[in-house]
Amino acid sequence: LPRTAEVRDNHLFIGGVDMVKLAREEGTALYVFDEADLRWRMETYREAFRSRYENSDVIYASKAFLNKEVVRIANEEGLCLDVSGGGELACAQMAGFPMEHVFVHGNNKTPAELREAISAGVGRIVVDSRIELARVSEIAGELGVEQAIYMRITPGVEADTHEYIRTGCEDSKFGFTMLDDFAFKCVKDAIEAPNVKLVGFHCHIGSQIFALHSFREAAQVMIEFIARVQKEYGIEIPELDLGGGLGVAYLATDKPSSIDDFAECTTRAVKDFCAEYGVAEPRILVEPGRSLVANAGVTLYTVGILKTLPGIRKYVAIDGGMSDNIRTALYRADYEPVIANKAGEPRTEIVTLCGKHCESGDAVVIDMPIQHPEIGDIACVFTTGAYCSTMSSNYNGQPKPAVVFVKDGVARVVTRRETYADLYARDI
Ligand code: LLP
């Protein structure tokens, strides 16, 4: 739940704002973010790392949720920014984010995207392959600059999460594989390549991870790798980016690790393994996405149709669905819903909140308890702050929802709802 969620007069309030009134004023489907929750998590992350390990930074992985306002807030809260393509970079530029704090990711950044990033003056490009290394070197040369780079290494750590979002194991399209010592050999190419400066390594083992030991294992592999590089190639590797991936609770029964425990585990691992392998403690970075924004966000819908299939299930159709939240259809994700105008009442029925799209798998919440639903109710689905708006689509000509930030009793529209004109503005 967002930190400021509360029930007043049977209505759900977030940030001191009545969700029922907000839904009726702004229309639904509607993404709502608790700004205090968002800022609290950003601050908590930064503090959790800084207090344990001075030379550290937190990078917000903007793929989780992106608009100009969240970029401005991340900057105000002292975070760096991870962008994974030209479109995310453009948002950061438009929002005035300092380019030296931008980290560019992606396994197939196009030459045009690399050129945009390098000429914008981004802080680090996380090089994902040998071919890309040559491209970055060439483009930086053409632009007459020396670009600081990391190499993304695939540490071969199996994180305990959904296979679609597991990225650090050996069979991965991301990064330089350690198989056949390939990554190690490529480090030499990176050191010798003109117009680039290798300043660090990066790894990311996956997302929605609950068990912290995977992060410790990844840190060990990376620091052992740094030790070997420093010894055999005789260069300093001053930075280590350990990626994102900390899980969040979608259900009350989910028990993810806290930000503090994650910080304790990773900083401890770095200190331990630096001591063990005789490596100077590097600047460390982490790049969380989900664990910064997921809990802060909710989605509001209006209930339009009710259908009971005897002996099967009850369908409650909402005015959104897989277009604003594809995670249920894609990963069979779980969410907790509430009827915002009956928030103080017990959840007495098991229902499926299905969407309005022409696809049977279109549901946001499957077989979960909720208050007695009626036409016109405002349904609220919790924990939709991450990977919902950024993975949204216009399927069936559905305009994308507005985004509202709430705080201290005030609601601000930070992204307006898409119009029908927006939908077809690009057609010739
Ligand atoms: N760094 C890199 C290089 C990443 O690829 C990702 C996520 C992150 C950081 C942030 O990871 P997080 O802290 O959010 O777990 N669409 C999926 C999640 C895909 C994650 C992709 N990479 C979902 O909805 O569950």
From TrEMBL:
Family recorded in the similarity comment: Belongs to the Orn/Lys/Arg decarboxylase class-II family. LysA subfamily.
UniProt catalytic activity: meso-2,6-diaminopimelate + H(+) = L-lysine + CO2
Residue runs in coiled coils: none
Quaternary structure, from the entry: Homodimer.
Pathway the protein acts in: Amino-acid biosynthesis; L-lysine biosynthesis via DAP pathway; L-lysine from DL-2,6-diaminopimelate: step 1/1
One Pfam family matching this protein: Orn_Arg_deC_N
Positions contributing to substrate binding: R290, R327, Y331, E359, Y387
Cited function: Specifically catalyzes the decarboxylation of meso-diaminopimelate (meso-DAP) to L-lysine.
InterPro entries attached to this UniProt entry: Ala_racemase/Decarboxylase_C, DAP_deCOOHase_LysA, De-COase2_CS, De-COase2_N, De-COase2_pyr-phos_BS, Orn/DAP/Arg_de-COase, PLP-binding_barrel
HAMAP family on file: LysA
Residue positions binding pyridoxal 5'-phosphate: G245, E287, P288, G289, R290, Y387
UniProt enzyme class: lyase
Listed name of the protein: Diaminopimelate decarboxylase
Gene Ontology terms: biological process: lysine biosynthetic process via diaminopimelate
Signal peptide, first to last residue: none
SUPFAM superfamilies tied to this protein: Alanine racemase C-terminal domain-like, PLP-binding barrel
Domain Orn/DAP/Arg decarboxylase 2 N-terminal: 41-294
Cofactor(s), names only, from the UniProt record: pyridoxal 5'-phosphate
Species this protein is from: Ellagibacter isourolithinifaciens
Alphabetical keyword list: Amino-acid biosynthesis, Decarboxylase, Lyase, Lysine biosynthesis, Pyridoxal phosphate
